[in-house]
Design brief:
Prefoldin, single chain, about 25% strand, alpha+beta, two-stranded antiparallel sheet, about 55% helix, Prefoldin 5, Prefoldin_subunit_alpha, unfolded protein binding, about 110 residues
Length: about 110
Amino acid sequence: MAQSINITELSLPQLEMLKNQLDQMYVPGRLHDVEHVLIDVGTGYYVEKTAEDAKDFFKRKIDFLTKQMEKIQPALQEKHAMKQAVMEMMSQKIQQLTALGAPQATAKA
């Protein structure tokens, strides 16, 4: 996000760029006003800002997301450790059942 704003630092009147279309296809486009940009603020809303204000917005957004990631990382690590313990226990139980099942099968035969 922030890297795309750096394009606006160029003082070219018409700037070649790639415009995101449907999050899958990129088509060539031209930016006629490098001082004002539209930014997607979420849920389909766009806001016109100066290039400097857009940089500030994306910096704040990156800082916010980084803090949120730091908050949830310990919980995710704990969940991962619990998942690993459950998987290990299930593997041991399957091995035990397999070992117990083999003598029963030979006793029936």
